[in-house]
Amino acid sequence: MGSDDLNQGDFNAKISDAVDELFNAVRQIEIDPKTNEVKELATPSSPASATGKEIPPLEMESDADNQVESAPAPQSPGTDSETLSRLDQALMTLDWEVSRSNAGSMRDLLDKATREFDLAPLQGEGGLISLMHDLLVAMSERPEVVPTSGPLALKSSLAAIKAAALEGQPYGDETLELVEQGRAALRSVLPEQGEAAAAPQPTVASSSAPPLPHELQVALKNHIKRLDQLLQKRVVPVETFFSKAPSLARLHVVMKAVRQQLAEQIAQMKGALAGEYGDVMPVADPVSISLKLGDECQKLMQYHLQVLNQCARRIAPIEKLFADMEGQHKLHAIHFELRSGLMTQLHYVAAALNGDFGPLPPLPKLDKTADSEAGQAAAAPPAATAVPPWSTLKVGRWRGEHIAFIPEQICFEGPAGFGAGNIARQATLKLNKLKPWPWSGLKSKLRGELADKGKKELAGLELPVLDLPVPSSGRGGKHVVVLFQGGKGGVVVIDSPLDDLELGDQYEWAPVSDAEGDVICGRILSDFGDPIPVVDVTRL
Fold this sequence. Notes:
The chain is α+β, with helices and mostly antiparallel strands. It has three domains: 24-189, no CATH class; 203-375, no CATH class; 392-539, no CATH class. It has helices spanning 8-22, 47-50, 82-96, 100-116, 128-141, 150-167, 173-189, 214-242, 249-273, 295-323, 329-352, 455-459, and strands at 28-31, 38-41, 203-204, 276-278, 392-398, 401-405, 410-415, 428-430, 462-464, 479-485, 488-494, 499-502, 508-511, 520-525, 532-535. Strands 12-5-6-15-14-13 form a six-stranded mixed sheet, with no helix packed on it. A three-stranded antiparallel sheet has the order 7-10-11, with no helix packed on it. A two-stranded antiparallel sheet has the order 1-2. The chain is elongated and about 105 Å long. The two termini are 37 Å apart.
């Protein structure tokens, strides 16, 4: 996401209003549990919208919201209030990010509304307002013990608060029914008494706890690797990008929280593989687990799945935002792949915990043709037909594009020698040109099959400089790679030194038929980045 992809200034100006709209209380989304599709929901009219008033842009953490104001004179029944509108916004913010400050802001606004509209009959032990306070405290102190339906219970309760505020005392039957519905919703999500305040104690697997099944260990290792890829190649770059502009501050807060949660989960999953289960409280909506695991391990796994779901829910509104913005396909695709990847991993681990040890699924890819410029459809990558035949490849850049080499074929890698000239423009290269100085030795710098040849044979050996059949945009570099195997060889001039690429379970192999007749034997595919062509000099 460099300067070539997005103009920062233009983007900031374009997105500022869209971000405000994203955090506006009148916009809501949901994730289809079957298709993972993000849909926008129609929102029931609030008192503000019913009177034609515009809900002001949301302030994430306003100092004024955190101050307890002096009690104003109670408002007349039926009068609309800015406080009620701000309560709507505060609930939207809390649903977006559960934090101590957001829960505290909503509590303060709830107290303010109680004073403004004389809602004393709804207070007291077991009253609607008291139960709302209890839930907000639990969400602030120990959010993991509150089910994800907590904000929905607050929404139902807030509808009763607004009805009571606008009707005034005595309350009619419809308002009283809304109050009872709100109390029931709150009781259904409130943690057991003392559970939210209980201090978690670090635990480790006891000697009597059954060890993790081998298949589950393999699944968790793959899962950790995939989560780390999502963290390093999606979350961290996007968080950095959002941090560079004030207009993206709200999005930066969300992505920072996602980064912290995923990093913590990766550490906890690594601990689970070592038999350490940490200080995890039971979740409110546990998933069923059929494998025989220790109690602490089950708690950890259920908590892990809940956090993955929370992260996906946080990302969904940002994905929807960029989907609705013209020309922001790349940011839309990144957030789609991130949210979809988290949901895919959630289902993968949940299945493994119930004995279904399938292969690690690839990340869903967004169809680029849906938002491609000038109506040009992006070419689909070649279909993978096998696992890679190598465990490690050497990868570098050739004229700006990634290219991979088979380690056994590399006989020399390094800068060209004295007097070699611009090798990339030459048709062939004599190997003695690789010597740093005319009096230097060559044999000691070679490996592989060339290292077995005699000095006289090496002195007369001349290899073709390969022009790879790969689309490129750069001019090339001065780093030389000499390939030789089975009596065939060639020279490739690349931009920089080679790096190791370990081919784990996330990589797939798409071979090319011999009939196509060039040195590219196939491509390495992964869930991240473009396919990487692999050079095989024996195809010359």
